[in-house]
Recover the amino acids of this structure.
């Protein structure tokens, strides 16, 4: 049965001090790990034993009021679906922050932008914030700093002048994909832009596809489609009848590429003989379908590590002497059998 | 370039009151949406305009100190990899909480349990907490309530007596899978338990497999394996040579099922003729592989909706008159071609 809450009964640091037979200042020194406070190990152990016995939990809000900031680091949830890349980033960031006495929390609102977003994040008085570039303006970053946020790290398509940015360029994926297909001799290609949740990254990748196709003098067909076998089959059947069909398709990601493999086979076309298919992400799926999928690999683990390294570098020298070196992140084609 | 932070310069509610020409009490009534406070629309608009102009963000910590609790709802990040199910849960919960003026945040620590976990979550003085059952004890739930947490909702394999629990039974998946294979006439089956990150849910599903196999008098072989084509191929080759090989394999999830499809074909075995293969999750992958995958569907969207409904029901009648009705959640087999 749910207990009726009893707010106000929570033990205070005064209770801890009484139980341990020390002053409240000593309790505060121990709990905040104040360097040079000259607390003996025996005293520290007594305080920690009292904390455990009483079930004392410091109040992050009260601490933030005293210090002007809390020990929280806020990651603003990105708008794209959660998956392996974000999971890896959160895992690495959490461990690195824990070593510094900081706690990673994810702010669940995916929609707020600009000053509205900054106000919502600032309510938590975090030490640092990671967010997508498109959610922040120069004014909103300024507002965060005014509220005691010491470090703001952005991630996005392009670097911005008002905060350190880790660049993750969707557009570059489209360029790398088309460069590969051009090298393979393709002169007529199709590119899929997903409808629905993935439309936005799809558009960004397509910008790169358009640029690279122009560079190579490649004829380009854009296909907007949902993740749906019926839609893929209709497309494939159209191509089966067309003399001037594309000889390769850039399929946005590995799932769409696998969908196209199935639809092309169902329409009587062979891969890569009639049409080559190129995915993105290098997921385990690539090895499981027939023919095995060629793909553009994004190295999300090394990207996550790089992202965390930049964040820690900035946190460690909080008042910033310039930007850390932010390395470029280049996608690479993994060749298998489909393209 | 990163701005040097200027803590302490953040506008206060007194600044807002001055700019709007109203009292601080009026500002507080407007910002906290206090019912029956008799604020006119004109005054409310003046206050909100001043809030925007000054870039004022209320301090969640200060609010929590006054009220004994904050407007935060903490979701303790589960230990299993983030994916579609958790994404859906977060999305639905965020919207439902926002309607109630509450903010969803995800606590990034996946490892803390018991009193350590409760103390870490309590630091944020949240209004409500969602967590996995295995992370909580009766004492830790008590500690949360003492710190003003009004609602604690757990999710786990079994209901517990000390907090409302939404049951999501991994074991039941194993039972449903084996019941299906038994109905199809299989008397010798293999079940995969993944090594690595997915081992724990794999063990829970296997408990159900063992129980159902005993009920049906089915001969059972347990296979512990990583997600790796080499390992799958070695297994499949062994089966190709064995007269008493299993006639069906329960493959933990759709990815493992697809891996086995490929390995069995590479070893010269046909599916489902030589060996049937059953996955779990009903992912899009099921339609993309050959033969199309039969699977146990978990209805994660309806589970997420149910979970959120229980949470909101508890939040809406905060001081609880009994538990809401928590419906059972039954996995179902989706039959395609592989089993």
């Amino acid at each position: 049965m749910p207990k009726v809450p009893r707010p106000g009964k929570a033990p205070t640091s005064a209770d801890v001090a009484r139980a341990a037979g020390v002053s409240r200042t000593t309790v505060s020194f121990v709990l905040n790990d104040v360097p040079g406070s000259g607390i003996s190990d025996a005293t520290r152990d007594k305080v920690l034993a009292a904390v455990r016995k009483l079930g004392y939990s410091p109040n992050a809000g009260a601490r933030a009021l005293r210090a002007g900031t809390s020990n929280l680091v806020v990651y603003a949830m990105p708008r794209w679906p959660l998956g392996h890349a974000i999971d890896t980033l959160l895992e690495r960031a959490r461990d690195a922050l824990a070593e510094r006495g900081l706690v990673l929390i994810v702010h669940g609102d995916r929609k707020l932008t600009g000053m509205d977003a900054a106000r919502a994040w600032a309510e938590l008085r975090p030490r640092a914030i990671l967010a997508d570039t498109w959610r922040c303006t120069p004014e909103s970053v300024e507002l965060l700093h005014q509220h005691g946020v010491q470090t703001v790290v952005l991630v996005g398509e392009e670097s911005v002048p008002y905060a350190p940015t880790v660049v993750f360029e969707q557009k570059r994926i489209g360029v790398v994909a088309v460069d590969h297909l051009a090298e393979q001799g393709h002169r007529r290609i199709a590119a899929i832009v997903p409808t629905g949740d993935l439309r936005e990254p799809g558009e960004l990748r397509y910008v790169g596809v358009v640029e690279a196709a122009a560079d190579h003098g490649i004829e380009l067909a854009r296909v907007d489609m949902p993740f749906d076998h019926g839609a893929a089959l209709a497309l494939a059947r159209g191509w089966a009848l067309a003399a001037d069909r594309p000889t390769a398709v850039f399929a946005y990601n590995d799932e769409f590429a696998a969908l196209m493999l199935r639809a092309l086979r169902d329409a009587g076309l062979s891969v890569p003989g009639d049409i080559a298919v190129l995915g993105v992400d290098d997921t385990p799926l690539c090895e499981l379908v027939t023919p095995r999928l060629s793909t553009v690999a994004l190295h999300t683990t090394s990207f996550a590590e790089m992202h965390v390294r930049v964040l820690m570098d900035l946190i460690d020298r909080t008042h910033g002497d310039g930007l850390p070196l932010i390395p470029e992140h280049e996608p690479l084609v993994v060749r298998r059998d489909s393209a």
